Amino acid sequence: MPDNWLKTEQGRTMDSFNYRNGKLYAENVNVATIAAQVGTPVYIYSKATFMDHLKKIQAAYADIDTTVCYSIKACGNINILKSLAEAGSGFDIVSGGELYRAQQAGADMSKIVFAGVGKTDVEILEALDAGIGYFNIESEAELENLIKLCKEHGKKTKAALRVNPDIKYDSHKHITTGVKETKFGVDIERAHKVFDTYAGNGVVEMSAIHVHLGSGGKTIDPYVNYVKKILPLVADLRAKGYTIDTLDLGGGYGADYETDTVPSAADYAAGIVPLLKAANLKLILEPGKSIIANAAIMLTRTVFKKTGGEKTFVIVDAGMNDLIRPCLYEAFHFIWPAQVEEKFVPDKRAKKLNLPGTETVDIVGPVCEGADFFAKDRTMPPVARGDLVAVFSAGAYGYTMASNYNARPLCAEVLVNGDTFEVIRKRQTYEDLVALEK
Fold first, then answer.
1. Active-site residue 411, yes or no?
2. pLDDT tens digits for 117-144?
3. Of 91, 103, 245, 416, whose CB is crowded by the most CB atoms within 10 A?
4. CA of 125: how far to CAs of 99, 142, 146, in Å?
5. Do residue 223 and residue 111 come from a single domain?
6. Average per-residue pLDDT in the chain?
7. ∠ at Cα 89 (62, 211), nearest 5°?
8. Does the pLDDT of residue 253 top 60, yes or no?
9. Is 364 helix (H, G, I), strand (E, B) or coil?
10. Which residue among 69, 327, 368, 411 is the active-site one?
């Protein structure tokens, strides 16, 4: 069985986590070495992986004027953002705090797009002062307020109107945003009225349309379909004399939580680029998980193993406060021990690996909640107390959604680069937990 199930050919996902002689490595570093020095639970990121994912997206859309704006909400460590910025990435932000993170990472402010339905006046003014590229406008009320603030403070900016194409696709209800019955954007039928009413305001240049279906896409067709649905709107607005030169297609492009289950960047581009090229439109993309999800694991340690009725439980030292996606989104993460016999080295990520000698277990954490689990009825090689277990594809919405629930300190983050690693966020202490309360 091969010691690396992760593909590296042109256009496909490349992940630098692999087994060598039964031991899990992040690039050229044995993850057990990191656990010994830093402790568990710990997020371990591979720089080679997220840089490769970014470069593949940039290359896939190189035939048209494209700005890739990595979505900070997916994973916002400023050390990671700095590397992405140095490679030419812009950033998608949804708060003043994320703007500050982008500034701390040395981002090009002209490559910043600011989304979100509830931008405060303070956040808007911070972004205007920073000179960001675009505001993604979610409502008429927000646009009116942006115009007012620009006039009051002598500022000018650009805006993209977020339009709901009302296209449904296979995604969890919490991360579907492109239908009418959501808090995001305006109905496609109202877009004409918004431009007719506000386009001549003099301070906010309305030259772009923004569309976002949601997160977790696994097929190309919905993305191609929403471009086809938006292009007539662009043509109609242009016919009225409005200058529409950019289409922001948002993010939501899937990540390989299971091997070979999502299209590559090149696959998406093959369907989208010809349409935009023909329409003479520039492109903004806001990928998050497709860049960072497979660039990290969460490494945790087995605390106990127990049985309850017919169930076997593997209890680990990470909890739902460290990684909430499984209980919040019913999300799948491939989970496997960090050291296994050769017969257990996996050849792919899948919900069921029918290898002789595996057992079916629930993998759960120590948090005092019945929802504190990472996997149920999952096949895995037998583990014992003290064994390290890796939760794969944990880079997106992992650490960034972590909390201190149950007064649990946030875990450390580590960045691997080749054969070296460094702590890019220290583990919280108990004193850190109460410092702001004193």
1. no
2. 999 999 999 999 999 999 999 999 999 9
3. 91
4. 11, 13, 9
5. yes
6. 92
7. 75
8. yes
9. strand
10. 368
